[in-house]
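Z., the sequence and structure:
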Amino acid sequence: MIYYISGGERSGKSAYAQQLAESLSNTPYYLATSRIWDDNFKQRVQRHINERDDRWTTIEEEKNISSIILDNTTVVIDCVTLWLTNYFTDTEYNVEKCLQLAKDEFDKLAKINATLIIISNEIGMGLHAQTKSGRQFTELQGWINQYIAKRADKAIFMVSGLPLTLK
């Protein structure tokens, strides 16, 4: 089962995903895909860690997320945007290569017998990116969001802390 949860920044995606995971499993996993870019981001990560109790197991993987998810588990993957950023920077901003790597990895992920709760950001609904790489990443994010959402069993869009069921 794949749940796809998207929305804007601070829309309530992580809290919703966490509550969903806890309703589905007594021992959920939290898969962090982020690199720690600066002190501000480090504080955000710590806040997320503090929000989870001892039922949770935290695992970390920047790109090859399918390699560490076990069968018959419930896993919150937080998040596609940071996971995609890792591919984007490591491919030196090659959109086509990045998109293919992300699709290939998602396809592997979709074959695992687990409940996956995948969080992503809708970044194309805000300000227009001022840089070429920013615009490329916005397009890339939109394409991979569409790819995942089409294959997900359930899709939820978060707005102001409220879930809107898309499918």
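The beta strands are 2-7, 29-32, 57-60, 74-78, 115-121, 154-159, 162-165. The radius of gyration is 15 Å.

Let me know what you think.
H.
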